[in-house]
Amino acid sequence: MGPRIGPVQMPDKETKAMMGTEDTPGGKASPDSQDSRPSVFHNIKLFVLCHSLLQLAQLMISGYLKSSISTVEKRFGLSSQTSGLLASFNEVGNTALIVFVSYFGSRVHRPRMIGCGAVLVSLAGLLMTVPHFISEPYRYDHTSPEDMPQDFKASLCLPTTPTQTPAISNGSCSSYTEARHLTVVGILFLAQTLLGVGTVPIQPFGISYIDDFAHNSNSPLYLGILFALTITGPVTAYGLGSLMLRLYVDIDRMPEGGISLTTKDPRWVGAWWLGFLIAAGLVALAATPYFFFPREMPKEKHELHFRRKFSAIASSAVSKGRKPPSERSPGESPEKQDGLAQVAPDLTVIQFIKVFPRVLLRTLRHPIFLLVVLAQVCTSSLVAGLTIFLPKFLERQFSVTASYANLLIGSISGPMAILGMVAGGVLVKCLHLGPMRCSILCLLGALFSLLLGLPLFFMGCSTHQIAGILHQPGTQPGPGLFPGCMEPCSCASDDFNPVCDPSTHVEYITPCHAGCASRVVQETLDKSQVFYTNCSCVVGGGPVPAGSCDSACSHLVLPFMFLVGLGATVACVTNTPSFMLILRGVKKEDKTLAVGIQFMLLRVLAWIPSPVIHGSAIDTTCVHWAQRCGRRAVCRYYDHDLFRNRFIGLQSFFKTGTLVCFALVLAVLRQQDKEAGTKATACSSGPEQQLLMSGPEKKPEDSRV
Q1: Residues in contact with 6: Cβ distance below 8 Å, sequence separation at least 6, in sequence order
Q2: Predicted pLDDT at 467
Q3: Most exposed: 274, 299, 320, 562, by fewest CB within 10 Å?
Q4: Which pLDDT band holds residue 38 (cuts at 50, 70, 90)?
Q5: CA pair distance 67, 647, nearest whole angstrom
Q6: How far is Cα 690 from Cα 688, in angstroms, rounded to an integer?
Q7: Compositional bias of type Polar residues: which residue ranges (predicted)?
């Protein structure tokens, strides 16, 4: 097939699908010509259903790591900067390949490519669980001998003999231990990379396949249903994380006699790996039908009667890509509409690579496109940091469990964000908003989102007193920093088994540092509670319960989440109008690739660096690091005020950037509107009329786009 130039017009995909078998690749007859009964897989409605389920499962597995990031940090001793890099690494493989989807789009068997990508996503999910199975069982008490029960009396205050020095648990470190740690981290990064590569063909090929073979009037509805269902994937991921993190990490190899931890204990590690197994299984099941769908199927002939009821949803879906066939004017040919996107399949790889930079530069010269993309970069940076580290923020600031933090996010902020996206589409559709009014709506959404975030700076408490730990970043505990009451004890300097004195709200990092000499376990019907007694550093000698002290601001977690959800709602209202600004801010022939360039820039400038930036900022607020084999591992205590100010401060910074960009968009649109009105007036008036017109009459009418 040669380039589409000259008087001879090649049939487009829709005509080709209607013609039946004569134009199928290779001249082979389609299944419909061989069998009068069409296959069940020659049905675009079934494809829409399967693709909705696949994208829901794929987004579930992509978002599940975000719900369990703090648990993975504790399990493998990672800093927030490293965990942020891990969470963003799936965008690396995705970004490297997403641009070439435009080139390969019509040259491959799209359903099979989607199925292969889904299989790779499923394998990546299984690979994420490998570190659990190759690692030793989790030991939350490193001072106990490996052949003795954890929370053994080694963490108690034992008399120091003249030849005895404080215990150091780093003695178990070896080159094998460090190599195993590097292997585990490497596997996690490799799995994230494969996850990003696997997701590349799923959404673009699925959307184009639906648009090609659905009825012109049904295509927007199908795409609306697709996005409405798949957007619940991240919400489902947080719900799955809430369930899995209630289970102990080694549920498949529980130690004899059980464990004495509760989910509120800071040493608790949930079954983070189990969610990946479930999500990977769901993706594998959803991938199976794609190997039975045909490369091309007959064009859908009938319009759905209830299509108009979903017009608001459809408008949101249309904004994700090019205009559906139902909105094309009769005089517009597909070649004129899609420009380079239509010519791309006729180019070689080398030609496509040569053409792409020229289109990229031409697209970036449009001020509206550039400013809107920068605004979306700021918004995406905000969302990337919030979705990854908000569970950890809630755990630290309000003393909630990882399971409950995920439940709050999945049940409050997630649905409210979806509501905002739907509301934005409804407003654009029902009010028939043009570019000027779309920019005003975006500006108002960014402004109210910023204002709703300001009270979050004051919704929190300072870190409670932790005996022997200075509230200065980088300070490490040592024997001279601990209270004198525990000097007769032989305490491991890097052990972690916190206890709380409820009378003074003072926390000690181990019972030994509280001077406790004995341990008592109170059994109840559903759980056991550990207490420590004979504590020389506690008034009255105890007893003191195991676990960290609760935050004095626990009651603020629900108002905090309500404000976060409300801010997410008004911020997501700008989603559809901002897409409309992009589609109307570039030339008609560049629209398809402009959307691809937009998503590429969002990944490069937001989704990849933002988690690392947020993680680095969080690490600077740490006041006590765990040490593992002589290296800095996970942070055990943060300065809560500093944590809150820097985390919310980053959110406010990105919100301000979004506000400034949309304000500039509005200013540019007004200037363009004014210039267009002046030019129109000058062209419609003759030279004599211009001389006779008075000053007020020269003023052009306000132009509404």
Answers
A1: none
A2: 81
A3: 562
A4: low
A5: 17
A6: 5
A7: 681-692
Closest CA to 428 of 554, 605, 578: 578
Strand-strand pairing, 499-501 and 506-508 = antiparallel
Residue 17 has pLDDT above 60, yes or no: no
* E runs forming strands in 524-630: 528-535, 544-545, 622-628
Task: Please state which of the four CATH numbers 3.40.50.720, 1.10.1040.50, 1.20.1250.20, 2.40.30.30 is assigned to the domain occupying 39-139+177-307.
Answer: 1.20.1250.20
3-state SS string for 33-71: HHCCCCCCCCCHHHHHHHHHHHHHHHHHHHHHHHHCHHH
- Residue boundaries of the structural domains of the chain: 39-139+177-307, 347-461+554-680, 499-547
* Secondary structure of residue 248 in the 3-state scheme: strand
Give the tokens for residue 54: 């696949």
Q: Indicate the CATH number for domain 347-461+554-680.
A: 1.20.1250.20
Tell which residue, 54, 55, 50, 128, has the closest CA to residue 89: 128
Q: List Cβ<8 Å contacts ≥24 apart for 621-626.
A: 621/473, 621/646, 622/473, 623/463, 623/469, 623/470, 623/471, 623/472, 623/473, 623/475, 624/466, 624/469, 624/475, 624/476, 624/477, 624/509, 625/476, 626/77, 626/494, 626/496
Nearest to 375 by CA among 663, 705, 668, 573: 663
Give the separation between CA 420 and CA 569, rounded to whole angstroms: 4
Q: Would the pTM of this model clear 0.90, i.e. be above it?
A: no
Token pair 């979306």: residue: 376
Residue 402 to residue 262: CA distance in whole angstroms: 12
Q: Do domains 39-139+177-307 and 347-461+554-680 have the same CATH topology?
A: yes
Residue type at 239 in one-letter notation: G
8 A C-beta contact, residue 138 and residue 261: no
Q: In whole angstroms, what is the distance from residue 559 CA to residue 565 CA?
A: 10
Q: 476 falls in which pLDDT band (50, 70, 90)?
A: very low
pLDDT top residue among 407 and 110: 407
Using only C-alpha atoms, the chain has a radius of gyration, in whole angstroms, of 30
* Position 419 confidence tier, pLDDT thresholds 50, 70, 90: confident
Residue 421 CA to chain centroid, in angstroms? 16
pLDDT: which is higher, 347 or 438: 438
Strand partners, 466: 507
